[in-house]
Design brief:
The protein has three helices and nine strands. It has 136 residues and is α+β, with helices and mostly antiparallel strands.
């Protein structure tokens, strides 16, 4: 499947979703779009991505609020100390998964803050972002 916005999307039969790599905020990221019967609403996915771009700073502030205290207490003493400002700067998006249910996960590279664990923020239509977790 080809999209002007996303480029070439490959269908992964085992996962039942389409994937592609595309430029997001100047960074190459992997996008996965869950599908039902190989059908995907690419315009809806494009609208979701555009909404995420406009909320990138807000999302990083949410991660900071949820994880900076844990980082400072647990990882900073053994790795390196990052200020709150530097903490947010180190977080870079590296993946997005859009689910058929309307939920989505945005993955952030931790920039070494959590020994290589991604920070994942979960969104839904009603609540916006409502959960952050470490992954990997």
């Amino acid at each position: 499947m080809n999209s002007e916005f996303f480029g070439e999307l490959q269908y992964e039969e085992n996962a039942e979703w389409y994937t592609c790599n595309f430029d997001y905020l100047g960074l190459p990221i992997e996008l996965s779009i869950d599908s039902e019967n190989e059908k995907v609403d690419l315009k809806a996915a494009e609208n979701i991505i555009n909404a995420l771009v406009s909320r990138n700073i807000e999302i990083k502030e949410y991660i900071e609020q949820e994880y900076y205290p844990l980082y400072k207490q647990t990882w900073a003493p053994i790795l390196f100390k990052a200020s709150r400002k530097n903490f947010k700067k180190r977080l870079e998006p590296n993946g997005i998964v859009i689910y058929v249910t309307g939920e989505l996960d945005v993955y952030f590279n931790d920039g070494g803050l959590f020994k290589g664990h991604d920070v994942v923020v979960r969104f839904d239509k009603e609540q916006g972002f409502y959960n952050a977790r470490l992954s990997g």
